[in-house]
Amino acid sequence: MSHLPGLSPEALAGLFLVATIAAIIQRTTGQAFGTILAGFVTLIAPAYVPAAVILLGAPVTLMSAGLDFRAVKVREIAPAIAGRLTGAVPAAMLVSVIAGSQLLGLFVGLTILLGVVLSLVGLKVARTPVTLGVAGLASGFFGTLTAVGAAPMSLIYQHEEAKAARATLNFFFLVGVTGSIIALAVEGVIRMADLYLVAALAPAVVLGVVLSGFLAKRMEGHSLRPAALILTTGAAFFLLGRSLW
């Protein structure tokens, strides 16, 4: 564990389980990987947020988007992608200043709770180039700063047909995560320890995507959304409590 400072074998095993669950939910819904994993990583080893979580998001979104690529609405999502890449730049600059601090934990907790509230409110937002661009910009900023950037886009696609929404969101997050990684690398935020954690948890991501295929038929007619909301809300409150007190 010398390559992973701040992480005991037990903590790593716990994160492996969380990463597996997060990958299952990401594959089946098109969202929530970063929301779930970032909360727990920030609780256990905040120095690995956001870089390691964002890096892990690349393979899960790549595998997930590839499985449903024909259903991706590439032209429709273009304004959101432009917004996402734009928002990543100032966020990466801010991360270079506050990475590893209590302030970052506060940002992560508040961003998770905002996502939960938006998910529960059920607002209907018209899908236009303007709303997609704004949602993409917000997703890029918060997704790069905290590794939690699903809420704005999920709000717009929550009433879309499940397969199309899942495919389009996975593709959007794949491109967005790539942009966030580049922005963080330019700012010098990605460390070797982040890469070691990614290597340790990558099998969990693969396992989660594979298991999601077996669970899909059994879960038909059931939603993993309540479980995701409970997990993320609990982590957010713990984070806020630790950051404030």
Could you characterize the architecture of this molecule?
The protein has 245 residues and is mainly α. The protein has one domain (9-244). Helices cover 78% and strands 0% of the residues. The chain is built from 10 helices and no strands. The protein has helices at residues 9-29, 33-44, 51-67, 74-98, 102-121, 129-146, 151-157, 162-186, 192-218, 225-244. It is globular. The two termini are 30 Å apart. The mean pLDDT is 87.
Domains (count)? 1
Strand content: under 5%
Question: Order of helices and strands, N to C?
Answer: HHHHHHHHHH
**In DSSP terms, counting alpha (H) and pi (I) runs of 4 or more, how many helices?**
10
Radius of gyration: 16 Å
Largest sheet: none
In the predicted model, the low-confidence regions spanning at least 5 consecutive residues are none
What's the SSE blueprint?
Blueprint: H1 9-29, H2 33-44, H3 51-67, H4 74-98, H5 102-121, H6 129-146, H7 151-157, H8 162-186, H9 192-218, H10 225-244
In short:
The protein has 245 residues and is mainly alpha-helical. The chain has helices at 9-29, 33-44, 51-67, 74-98, 102-121, 129-146, 151-157, 162-186, 192-218, 225-244. It has one domain (9-244).
Feature tags:
245 residues; mainly alpha
